[in-house]
Amino acid sequence: MEFVFVRHGQGEHTLDIPNSLHISDPSLTEEGINQAKALREQLPLSPTDVLICSPVRRTLETMEIWSKGIDCKKIVSPLVSPRMFPQIPEGKTLPCDKMLSEETIKADFPDFHLDEEAESEWWIKGINKMSEEEFNLRGKAFIKRCKLMGTRRIFIVSHDGTITSYRKFITGNEFTRGDFPKETGIVKVNF
């Protein structure tokens, strides 16, 4: 099975760092929209593909634009929501990384399915500040569920820290912030 991690397109929260990190619920910029459209040629989708994305507007918009016109399964899961990397126990979740409510997702993105197997507490807490030990437990269960979906590849639209955390967990390799994928960067992991 192949996991294809895709970082979301450029978001409004990246235009004036560090000030813009305090924007709540940032959307894609015009450049981010173009990056998401470019994914259609870089990574063409088929109806047998499964896409899973973070419950944050910029990832949802990236997945919506990329998958437009393709009748594949689209799932929103808090288990691929924003995650700090490396973990800072005293760190705080920034406004730009707060997850949308299930109700907002249903209203704004009606073609997407909510991850019903994710425990309700993760729809509230997310994985941003989860300890590495707990992340590894949740990650293992999440990957096992993905394998049971019976498809040859799963695309995960997420965030730089989350992608790097999963890469570390899956491969056992060490990574730094220097290994973060760029906007709409693609990372493939086979197992």
TrEMBL record:
One of its GO terms (molecular function) is phosphatase activity. It comes from the Bacteria. InterPro entries: His_Pase_superF_clade-1 (IPR013078), His_PPase_superfam (IPR029033), PGM_Phosphatase (IPR050275). GO terms for cellular component: cytoplasm. This is Histidine phosphatase family protein. It comes from Radiobacillus deserti.
